[in-house]
Amino acid sequence: MENNQSYFGGLAHGIKTLAVGMKVTLKEYFTPKSTEQYPENRKTTLHVAKRHRGRLVFKRTEDGAHKCVACTMCEKACPNGTIKIVSEMRTDEETGKKKRFLLDYQYDLGDCMFCELCTNACNFDAIEFTNDFENATFSREALVLHLDKEIYKGGSLPNLIDGGAPLTIGKFNTKTK
Description:
By secondary structure, the chain is of the alpha+beta class. It has 4 helices and 7 strands; from the N terminus they run αβαβαββαβββ. It has helices at residues 7-30, 38-45, 73-77, 117-121, and strands spanning 34-36, 55-58, 83-91, 98-108, 127-130, 144-146, 174-176. The strands form 3 sheets. It has a 3-stranded antiparallel beta sheet with strand order 3-4-6, with no helix packed on it. A two-stranded antiparallel sheet has the order 1-7. The longest helix has 24 residues, at 7-30.
C-alpha cells in the first residue's frame, strides 16, 4: 500500500507539514522586530526616490505661467480618464490667429494609476510627476485637483523633490522591541 493513500501515511504527512509551519512561525516569533517611526521622524530620516510617482503637477516658467497649451494629448493618453481638460478657442491679440486657451485642467488623483503615459504624451513638457506621496484625505472630492489654478511649491517634507533624507543602505530609524 502506498504511503499517501493510507490513513496513517496521511496523518504523518499532516503532522510533518504542521511541524514545518510551526518551525517557521517560532523562528519569526523570536527574531527581533524593528519599527520605522514614520510620522514622528519622517522629516529627518525618510528617503523617497526621485523617480517615485506621487502626484501630477504643472511645470511653470520663471514668471509663474504654466506651459500647458490645452492640446489634450495627455487627456487622450490617460487610460482611465483621470485628466479632464476644458479649453476654448480665442483670437490671440498678438498674432491675430485663433488659439486654444486652457480654462480648467482637472486631475483626479484618486483614480490615477501613476502610469506616466500622460507625461510621455505631452509634447510641451508641461506636466510631470513629483515624488510627493502624502495625499491622504477623508473625502474623494479633495483628491480632484485643478492644476492650472494651483501652484505647487513642493511636498510636505523638506527636500522631498530631491529625495528627502539621504539614503543609507541597511540603516533605519527604528525602535527595536
